[in-house]
Each structure stands twice: as C-alpha cells, then as structure tokens.
Amino acid sequence: MNRSLHPSTARAATLAAAFFVCWTPASVVHAQAAVTAAAPACETPTFLEPARLSGLWQLSLWPENGTVERPVSTGAVLFERHPEYEGSVRGRIKRTDTGNDREGLLSGDVVDGEVNFDESADGVALDAVWIGEPAACGQELRGTRRPADGRPADAPVLNFLLKKAPGWR
C-alpha cells in the first residue's frame, strides 16, 4: 500500500527536519549569547525593603588605606525585620577582632540610596555608625564604619563590604 503524505503535512515535516538540523548546540549557544547580551544590567535600588535586607550577609572590614582583599576583620550579620521600626532591620553581628571575636547588634535601613546602620555591643550604647550605599543589584552594601561620638579617639575608621550570602536572595 503506497501512502503519500498530504502536501501540507509533507511541507510541515520538511520544515521540522530543517529546524532540527539547523538547531545545533552551537546555534543554541549563539541564541543564548544574544539573549544575554540583550538583557539589561540590573539597577542598584535606592531603597531596600526589610525583606530584601533580611538574611545572612558576609562581612569584611578593612582600613581606609587598605583593600577588601586584606581585611582586618571578617564575620557575618543575620538581619531580620526590626520589631519596633517598620521599614528597618535589626541583626546580630559577629566578627573577628584582635584577640577575640566581637558580637553585637546592627540596625538600620537603606533609603534614598544610602545605607544607615547603628552598631551596639550591648543593645543600648551606640558604638559605631555605618554609612554607605547598595551595590551589585542590591546584593552588596559598601561604605564606611566610623566610631560613634563619645567613643575612644583611637578607634579606627574602617571600610565595610556586606555581601548577601548565597541562597539568601
């Protein structure tokens, strides 16, 4: 029995075969590269709501004349929504220091493109003020940590980098 395909079915089969022959892994890579190249870069937000700030952040601190690659202190901050101030976060900070680890609280927000955090070892007295800006699409916070007014004059001014830990997007 000789069966021939309907002309429209035969044409569709020919087009499908041509598609699969032309759709090689190399053409997939080229198509993906074109989409990637066309995708706009993300914008760094000027406001980060508590949900975006919440989570684990990796911390590096280095002197004003140093580099992030040679930190004098490293650690982490775990932020949660602030229980008293809507739009803000509060978190536990733990970092290395000369001789001992330091722990405390860090609280604040990111508004109008500026990071503003207050650090306190005991939750009452202000020890340091962190001022900076979001970077890397909001996955990093960068700036300067300065001793609070009334703190020892020999306390160093440090640059900071907070990077959102993988899995906490």
Strand order of the largest sheet: 1-2-3-4-5-6-7-8
- Tell me the structural class: alpha+beta
Largest sheet: 8 strands, antiparallel, barrel
Number of strands: 8
Helix proportion: 10-25%
Stretches with pLDDT under 50, minimum 5 residues: 1-36
The CA-CA distance between the termini, in Å, is 63 Å
> How many helical elements?
3
CA-atom Rg in angstroms: 26 Å
Shape: globular
What is the total number of structural domains? 2
Order of helices and strands: HHHEEEEEEEE
* Level-1 CATH class name of the largest domain: Mainly Beta
Return the CATH architecture of the largest domain.
Beta Barrel
Q: What is the CATH fold-level name of the largest domain?
A: Lipocalin
The portion of residues forming beta strands comes to 35-45%
Averaging pLDDT over every residue, what do you get?
A: 80
CATH homologous superfamily label of the largest domain: Quinohemoprotein amine dehydrogenase alpha subunit, domain 2
Structure report:
With 169 residues, this protein is α+β, with helices and mostly antiparallel strands. It has two domains: 7-38; 50-164, Quinohemoprotein amine dehydrogenase alpha subunit, domain 2 (Lipocalin), CATH 2.40.128. Helix content is 20%, strand content 40%. The protein has three helices and eight strands. The protein has helices spanning 7-22, 25-38, 50-53, and strands at 55-63, 73-81, 89-96, 101-111, 114-120, 128-135, 140-147, 158-164. The chain has an eight-stranded antiparallel beta barrel with strand order 1-2-3-4-5-6-7-8. The longest helix has 16 residues, at 7-22. The model is unreliable at 1-36 (pLDDT under 50).
